[in-house]
Design a protein that fits this description.
The complex is a heterodimer of chains A (about 250) and B (about 120).
Chain A (H helix, E strand, L loop, with lengths): L2 H14 L4 E10 L10 E8 L9 H16 L3 E3 L5 H13 L7 H15 L2 H10 L4 E13 L2 E10 L5 E10 L1 E14 L4 E15 L6 H20 L2 E10 L1
Parallel strand pairs in A: 2-3, 2-4
Antiparallel strand pairs in A: 1-9, 4-7, 5-6, 7-8
Helix pairs in contact in A: 3-4
Chain B lengths: L3 H37 L3 H14 L4 H13 L3 H14 L4 H23 L5
Classes of the chains: A alpha/beta (about 250), B mainly alpha (about 120).
Chain lengths: ~250, ~120
């Protein structure tokens, strides 16, 4: 229980004049967003990322991480192709657009449009479904960027006067901070029909002080760790945990 | 002497009524006490039964209704929980504990409802 909650409870006790109270934990069910009972298999088809060089192989790392999570948190059989099939299709599209290595702004835009078209192409997903025995397909778009959030931050200090009298001094000070933002658009596709069943965007951010040496890969895992319960909540029932007060 | 007979009847009636109220309150308190004990052990089915009996014995007991609401919420009967919280608040509109429980319940319930709205059936 946080200090704030404790204070609120104490104030409540004084205000209500109740003879006694007991705080109890409650744990209530939260249904999954999708009913996946008609699927026996799930395929992480891969993810669209931008064409910038990155310290983290976003699509491969995310596919592997989601496969592991799905294996331990769902009843679905998790398919593991040698290579995420969306990646193969994206590479074919990229070959048509230009030479490997560096891409012009136009080429990047062309790639983005082609990737969006693929993500929304029922025929593409239906064909993939035929190949993989009609699983529930998870695909989407990922973005992982470093952020510079240096700037003035509000600061509060307790200062004592010569007489020992404490007083609160508010000021602002410059803080060097950097961080990362991970954004994920997940598409859940029925490969029997190619229809998009559900689409959801998640975004998480982490900030570090300048002197903290955190690798991009560590940050990526930290952000994915926060994002995973929301992702799993689409496919499996979750629990809402909290506390309530019983009165006598 | 004649006028004192109806007065006696009235006084006796009032005394009997207050004794009955007192007995109902005591019965409700006993049920609540037991309910609290079992709830702390996680036996919510039994706790719910006790809180229901307490609320039946003393329908003006806001604590019984609050506790019943918590038990119903814990067991997944969200409509029942909402009704019980609202009744408890009608009886004690200024009780901060009940209000706090109700606010937390509504927050969780909104989350559940948002999830259900977003849910789309698979063909």
């Amino acid at each position: 229980m946080t200090a704030r909650r404790t204070l609120v409870l104490a104030a409540a006790l004084a205000a209500s004049g109740c003879s006694s109270m007991i705080e109890v934990p409650v744990d209530t069910p939260l249904q999954s967003k999708l009913d996946v009972s008609s699927f026996r298999r799930i395929l992480i088809a891969g993810f669209v990322t931008d064409l910038e060089d990155s310290d983290v192989d976003l699509s491969a790392e995310t596919s592997r991480l989601l496969q592991n999570q799905l294996r331990s948190n769902t009843q679905l059989q998790v398919l593991e192709p040698d290579r995420p099939p969306l990646q193969t299709a994206l590479e074919t599209a990229l070959e048509k657009i230009g030479e490997g290595g560096s891409y012009s702004r136009d080429e990047k835009e062309k790639f983005r449009l082609e990737a969006d078209r693929l993500l929304q192409d029922p025929e593409f997903w239906r064909k993939m479904g035929e190949e993989y025995q009609q699983p529930l397909i998870v695909a989407g778009k990922l973005d992982f960027e470093s952020q510079n959030r240096s700037g003035f931050q509000p600061d509060e200090r307790v200062v004592r006067s010569a007489q020992g009298q404490p007083s609160l001094v508010r000021s602002s000070r410059f803080m060097e901070r950097k961080g990362y933002v991970l954004s994920a658009d997940f598409y859940f596709i029925d490969s029997k029909t190619g229809e998009l069943l559900h689409k959801e965007r998640f975004s998480e951010e982490v900030l570090y002080a300048e002197d903290q040496r955190i690798s991009p890969l560590s940050s990526y895992f930290e952000l994915m760790d926060r994002l995973l319960p929301n992702f799993l909540g689409v496919l499996t029932p979750q629990r809402i945990r909290g506390t309530r007060v019983l009165l006598r | 002497m004649r006028t004192s007979v109806p007065l006696l009847v009235l006084v006796s009636g009032a005394l009997l009524a207050s004794a009955a109220t007192l007995a109902a309150e005591e019965k409700a308190d006993r049920q609540i006490d037991f309910g609290l004990k079992v709830a702390q052990k996680g036996l919510w089915q039994e706790a719910r039964f006790r809180f229901e009996r307490a609320a039946k014995a003393d329908p003006q007991n806001a604590a019984a209704l609050n506790d019943l609401a918590v038990a119903l919420e814990q067991m997944g009967d969200f409509a029942g929980a909402r009704q019980a919280y609202e009744k408890a608040l009608e009886l004690k509109p200024n009780d901060t504990y009940i209000q706090q429980n109700y606010d937390l319940f509504r927050e969780a319930d909104d989350k559940r409802n948002r999830k259900l709205k977003k849910k789309r059936p698979t063909p």
